[in-house]
Amino acid sequence: MRSEIIKCKRVLKFYFQNSFVYRDFDYNERYRDLSDYLSFYDYVSKQIVENGKTYLIFDELQAVEQWEKAIESFRLDFDVDIYITGSNAYLLSTEFSTLLSGRYVEIRMLPLSFKEFLDFYEFETDVTMDEKFQRYLQFGGMPILREYKFNEARSNQALEGIYSTVVMKDILQRNSGADQAMLQKIMLFLCSNIGSISSPNSIGNVLSNEGDIHSGKQKNIAGKTVDKYISMLCNAFVFFSVGRYDVKGKQLLKTLGKYYIIDMGFRNMLLGYRDADRGHIIENIVFLELLRRDYRVYIGKVGETEVDFVAEKPNDKVYIQVTESMQSPETRERELRPLRLISDNYEKIVLSMDHSFINSYDGIKSENIIDWLLNE
What we know:
- The longest helix is centred in the middle third of the chain and has 21 residues.
- With 376 residues, the protein is of the alpha/beta class.
- The protein is built from 14 helices and eleven strands.
- α8 packs across α10.
- β8, α13 and β9 form a beta-alpha-beta unit.
- An eight-stranded mixed β-sheet has the order 5-4-6-7-8-9-11-10. The protein has a three-stranded parallel β-sheet with strand order 1-2-3, with helices on both faces.
C-alpha cells in the first residue's frame, strides 16, 4: 500500500505542478520541525501560488499540534482546495468540526468490496465464482495483498504489519496509559465474537473471570475499562459498534450490541481462517456492504427474537437476515420467524450461500449472498 501511495504522489505532482502542495506528516522526517500550527502555516503559505487555485493535500496531519487552526487560516487567506487524509477518527476533532461546521465533506474509505475485489485481482479462467468468494472471505479486501497473489504466509505478514502500525501508532501512542496486552486481549475477544450480542460489562466479566482484568474494589471497573479500549479500536476504525433497535417500539436500545471488524483479513490473520466461522464472516461482510451502500445500520429486536440488520436511508428501509444455509427446516424457521413478526411493508431479505430455485418465502425474499453483493 505504501508503494502505491508514493506512486500516486508522483503522478499528482506531475499534473498539478506549481499549484499542488502535498505533505505526508506521518512518514517524512523532513517535516518533524513543523510540530505546531504556526510553523506549519508559515511553511505552507510560502508555497501557495499567488494567482489561481492551489490544491493542498495533507496526510496524517494530526502530528501537527492544533493543525485545525492552520487549515481554517488557509481557507480564509488563500484560494485553495484542501484535502486531508488519515487513518483514524482523531482527525475529526471537536474543534475542527466547530471551526468548519458545514464547510467540509468527510469521505470514509473501506477496504475492497467483493465487486471491487473481482476487478482488482486476476484469476485463472477455471476459478469459479464461489472459489473467488472463498478467497475474499479468507484474505479480505486490503489492496496491498494483490501483489502476493493469495500466498497465505506473505499476505499474513503484510496484514500483521498494517495491524501492528494501527495498534502501536494510531492507538497506543495517542492514548497515554493504554496497555498493549489489554488492547490485544480485547481485540482478540471481539474478533472471536463477531456478530454476537455483547456489552462492555459482559466482555469485562468474561475477561475478569479469565484473570485478564482485575475488577478491584470499584464496582463495574472491568466494564469501564473494556469500554475505553473498545472506543480506542472504534476511533482507529478497526471495529464498528452497532446498536440495537426495537422494531415494534421504534426506538434505540441503550444496552447490548454487536461489533464488526473493518476487514476480515485482519481477523483471519489473528485467529486463523476456519470454515466453521463462515456464518459470522459473511455477516460481517454484509454489514460492511450496507455501509458502502450508505445505509445506517442497526441490530433489530422483535419481541424475543433478533433481526441481523435493520438498514435505513431517509426514504428506504430493509430488514436482512444472514445465514450460511437455509436448507434445514430448523434454520429456515429460525431465520424467517423474526421477519414474519414485522408488520410493515419494507423489504425483507434472507441472504445465504445457497443456490436455490426458491426465491421467496411468503413474500420474504431469499437471495444468494454473492448475487446480492454483485447486484448493486
